[in-house]
Amino acid sequence: MSMLILSDDELLALLGKGEKAAFTEIYNRYWKTMLSVAANKTGDLDEAEEIVQDIFVSLWKRRSHLKITSSLKNYLSVSVKYKVIKALARQNAHRNIGDQHTYDQSFIDDSTQEYLQFEELQQQLAELVAALPEKCRLVYRLSRDSGYSQKEIAAELGISEKTVEAHLGKAIKSIRNGLNHFLLSFLL
Fold first, then answer.
1. Which long-range contacts (CB under 8 A, 24 or more apart) does 146-154 make?
2. Measured CA distances, 117 to 38, 110, 112, 122 (Å)
């Protein structure tokens, strides 16, 4: 069976059973986008490659007990953003402190802690989305979870593209503010 025609959910089910071809297809679908986002945020291609590699290694290691409550695309996107935040915080701490001992300790394997923090971040995102006004939430989910364009959302809901744009802007602003507040308290 060709993996190219399978949905992300079908690929995740096969991945859970240890199908290497499903993992390869997920990798092929998303690595370039993930690398681009990470490189743009960090400004360092080597760091970006390491971030993406870490995410895929973690995905493979946790394949049998992985529970993704949103779309795979969203899960990977949040994973990249979270890893970038950690990488930038680590770089900043290293620059500010300059203490080699402290820098070395930042490389201790803390994958379980990262996983728990990621789950907490995902839960916070889900709560922020659930708290959006109904129409705003629907537009946001069609855009982010289902991958609809603004034009497709407008046609689906029978509203103008400007209205879709306004709802998305409101949703993103609300979610960004909520996540910024959460991450600030989380990092402190």
1. 146/71, 147/71, 147/73
2. 19, 11, 9, 9
Cα 109 → chain centroid: 21
Convert the pLDDT of each residue in 132-168 to its tens digit.
999 999 998 888 877 888 999 999 899 999 999 999 9
Pinpoint the alpha helices (H) of 43-149: 45-61, 72-97, 100-105, 111-130, 134-144
| Residue range 1-99 in CATH 1.20.1250.20 | no
Distance CA 84, CA 89 (A): 8
Q: What is the mean pLDDT of residues 23-46?
A: 89
The Cα 11–Cα 26 span in angstroms is 7
CATH number of 124-188: 1.10.10.10
Nearest Cα neighbor of 92 from 82, 101, 103 is 103
If one compares 145 and 50, the residue with the highest pLDDT of the two is 50
Read off the pLDDT of residues 5-25 as tens digits, 9 standing for 90 and up.
Answer: 888 889 889 998 988 999 999
- In angstroms, the CA 92 to CA 102 distance is 12
Q: Considering the entire predicted model, what is its pTM?
A: 0.51
- Higher-confidence residue: 164 or 113? 164
Enumerate the domain spans of the chain. 1-99, 124-188
Show the tokens assigned to 153.
Answer: 């959302």
